[in-house]
Amino acid sequence: MGGPDAITAYSLEDNQLWLRHLFGLIVQTTVTIYIFLMAWTGSLLSRLTIPMIVAGSIKYAERTWTLWRASTGELRDLMLTSPDPGPNYPKLMDEYSLRKSEGFLVTIEEVNEGAQELDIITSDKDNIIKATAMFEIFKRLFADLILSFKDKEKSQHLFEDEKMSSKDAFDVVAIELGFMYDLLYTKAMVNYTRSGLVCRFTTVLLTCLALGLFSTDNLNKNEKADVCITFLLLVVAVLLEIYATFLLLCSDQTNHWLIKNKRTSILRATRCLTSLFDQKRWSGRILQYSLLSYCLEERPGFKILEKVQQMWPPRSGVQIRGFLERHHL
């Protein structure tokens, strides 16, 4: 089935090996079609193999396409924009001189478009909008590109804003890093495009179609163990497709699109689903050792022996606490 959406590469070097995955896609698809043709019987089971082969090929092709787009060269080409020639100063000065000679009061003023854009970003209360704007700037660093002084000023102005708390600042950075992880190691770059959504709908439809037609077939002539295993595999494939669709709807990229297009009712529903299933971001799910928590909070050993220490003389209680401190309990 081409692997899950949550992982396409385990390291950046895997993205550079997209040609190897393309070769594997061609070879495996060819071998699968050859085996399918050799085992063709004309039965319903043989016909149901066609939608599963198509769905698996689409998902495998999505993975290869994602690896290609996340490779260093392609990623740099996607981020580079057309060169800005800047204002046409000779034409500007000719127009200025002409208007001035005609008796008009003419002045030249500089319009800082970047500052206006940044004011719009900082005025938005949702951290996803701010993180997306910053991500569009700083993702160039992962393609070995150089940022301008204007980009640096935008970042400083955003985080120096008095309205932004420390919690919001860390939340913005966490969303940015999540976007970068999705870009380099998942199918997000393909899934959030129009063609990617069409592919997702097609694979879900074909898998559900195969499961439905398989359930209506007369399966008494087949081995019971084979029928159970095939049915279980199809059910698991459908459940994985539903779960992947759920993650797609509750992701930060989808929330950003809903906020941008002012789909507040759908956004409210997706956030309710996220809170219902306790969908935390990566920074809240990774097991990590907190030095501050260790220093400021009581360890389990103290809570367990708290009442026991009260039964001992004060001097003995201090000795027990010192023993726990030395052994990090």
TrEMBL record:
It holds the Pfam family DUF4220. Residues 2-294 form the DUF4220 domain. The chain crosses the membrane at residues 18-40, 197-215, 227-250. InterPro entries: DUF4220. Keywords: Membrane, Transmembrane, Transmembrane helix. PANTHER family: OS01G0798800 PROTEIN-RELATED. This is DUF4220 domain-containing protein.
